[in-house]
Structure formats: structure tokens, C-alpha cells
Amino acid sequence: MEPEKKFDYDYIIIGSGFGGSVSAMRLGEKGYRVAVLEKGRRYRTEDFPCTNWNVRKSLWMPGLGLYGIFALTFLRHVFVLHGAGVGGGSLNYCNQLLVPPDEVFEKPEWGSGDWKARLAPFYEVARGMLGANPSPRVGTADEILADIGREIRGEDTFHINDVGVFFGEPDKTVPDPYFNGEGPDRTGCTFCGACIVGCRVGGKNTLDKNYLYLAEHKHGVEIIPETEATVSP
Ligand SMILES: Cc1cc2nc3c(=O)[nH]c(=O)nc-3n(C[C@H](O)[C@H](O)[C@H](O)COP(=O)(O)OP(=O)(O)OC[C@H]3O[C@@H](n4cnc5c(N)ncnc54)[C@H](O)[C@@H]3O)c2cc1C
Ligand code: SF4
Questions:
Q1: What angle do CA 50, 56, 58 make, to 5 degrees?
Q2: Which pTM does this prediction carry?
Q3: CB within 6 Å of ligand 1 — which residues?
């Protein structure tokens, strides 16, 4: 008989996506005993599928025995595409790290106060943790977008966004370039373009390479994959 699992934490976080990972690392950093329950699998770099035709590794549909990283949820008025796995949506997101434009902060829903200024330092911290930087390459798709911008006289709207990707030397693995050696080794992006299938190179700054890595390896946070939190009937 398996020994009963000791289950005693200050905080239990459900889900290891962006919200869960940041909370886990910051709570662990403060010295709390933290566990993260994640219903999806822990994927290693070499585990990601080469194509989304590999439905077993691409789609999250446990009812059909599929435990991939892409979940589809159909609600009455909306269809939601989201991530599943240790790292949540960071496994299959597009790496775009944008700070909202002024008009977002000017919305009345924020209430009183200068929210742009209040949040600015936190955006900087998150951008640093996620390694936000512009892509050094402008590809054909970017050129087409720039052309369209010129055609419709909107060229000023075209710019290269910051992305959470490690652009070292393509395919070359180096010791942690972000966290003073406390993070994992990283491999330079090869520009393969497979970011939303899951990065098989290790260039994408997914949460398991920053917030979750430090939470687990530096602050003793326990990440428990393939474990779903449910509401008892
Ligand atoms: C294809 C795609 C591309 C995107 N590109 C971008 C982009 O470029 N830039 C950007 O800013 N945003 C992008 N997004 C949006 C971004 O991924 C989400 O906003 C973000 O992941 C939401 O974070 P979250 O922490 O709320 O949830 P998630 O990241 O979705 O994490 C939730 C986690 O909780 C787990 N979970 C859920 N329920 C349970 C349970 N009951 N028990 C245990 N575990 C559970 C899930 O498996 C998942 O791992 C993209 C999204 C998609 C789908
Ligand atoms: S190596 Fe490929 S999948 Fe990974 S970040 Fe670069 S373009 Fe995306």
C-alpha cells in the first residue's frame, strides 16, 4: 500500500499558467509552503510534437485519452482556446509581451488613480522575468504586413513587438542567461516558427523556464502535475 501523501501547505494554487506561476514563485520567495496542482502533464523540450497533426500530444481532451497542450472549451456563447500542462498557456502562446496602450488605462473601469504609472514597475519586472526582447529577424510575413500598412496608409502602425524568446546563437545551448546562473540552461531560438505547437528547441521562455523553475528549484514550491482540483458534489 502506498504511504499516504503528506498534504500540508500554506497555499495551494490551482493551475500553473501565468497567474499560478507568478503566485507560486512570489509566495515561495516569501517563505510560504506552496503547492501547485496542474491537471496537465509536465512536458520536456523534447516531448513537444513536431506538428499539431500529432493529436495525442497536441490536443487536451482527456475524455478521448488525449493529454496534449491545447485545450478547447465550448461554452454557450464563446469558444475558448487555452493551454494545459505545467506552464499552462505559456506552452502554446505566441510569446507576444505587450504593455497595453494608453487608451486601455484611460478606461473608466479602472476607477480613480494613475494605473499606467502604478503598474509600470510591475510590467518591468514581468518583462524581465519573461525575457521580453524584439526579434532580431524580420520575416516575409512581417514584410507583407508592413506592405499592407503602407498600402492603407497605416505604416506607422507596423512595428516589431517584444517577445519572450531567448535569441542567443541559434540551436546553441548556454548556461542560464537570465537569472545569474540560477535558471536552467537555454538554447537559442532557431526561428522554426513552431511556437504554438510547443517549442522543441528550448528557445521559448515558457513559465517552466522562469517563474516555475525558480519556484521549484530555488523556493521549494511543489508542482504536482496530472492532478485536477475538483469540487466535491
Ligand atoms: C494560441 C494562443 C496564443 C496566445 N498568444 C498570446 C500572446 O502572444 N501574448 C499574450 O499575452 N497572451 C497570449 N495568449 C493568451 C494567454 O496564453 C492567456 O491569457 C494566459 O495563458 C492566461 O493565463 P492564466 O494563468 O489565466 O491561465 P492558463 O495559462 O490557461 O493556465 C491555467 C492552467 O490551469 C490548469 N487548470 C485549469 N483547471 C484546473 C484544475 N481544476 N485543476 C488543476 N489544474 C487546472 C490548466 O491545465 C492550465 O495549465 C494566447 C493564448 C492562446 C490560446
Ligand atoms: S525555436 Fe521555434 S518554437 Fe522555439 S521560440 Fe524559436 S521559433 Fe518558436
A1: 55
A2: 0.94
A3: 14-20, 37-40, 81-85, 88-89, 92-96, 196, 228-229
The kind and range of the H/E element at 66 are strand 66-67
pLDDT digits (tens, 9 = 90+) for 175-224: 999 999 999 999 999 999 999 999 999 999 999 999 999 999 999 999 99
- Kindly state the helix (H) or strand (E) to which residue 147 belongs, with its residue range: helix 140-151
User: Which ligand 2 atom sits nearest the alpha carbon of residue 193?
Assistant: 7
Q: How far is the CA of 168 from the centre of ligand 2 (A)?
A: 12
Atom nearest to 197 CA in ligand 2: 3
189-193 long-range contacts, Cβ below 8 Å, gap at least 24? 189/165, 191/137, 191/139
Could you report the per-residue pLDDT of 69-85, keeping only the tens digit for each? Answer: 999 999 999 999 999 99
- In this structure, which residue's CA is closest to atom 1 in ligand 2? 189
Report how far ligand 1's centroid is from the alpha carbon of 107 (Å): 25
Q: What would the grid cell of residue 169 be?
A: 546563437
Kindly give, in sequence order, each residue whose CB lies less than 8 Å from that of residue 209, ignoring residues fewer than 6 positions away.
183, 184, 186, 202
- First-to-last alpha carbon distance for the chain, in angstroms, is 27
Residue 220 C-alpha cell reads as: 521549494
Q: What is the pLDDT of residues 40-80, one digit of tens each?
A: 999 999 999 988 889 999 999 999 999 999 999 999 999 99
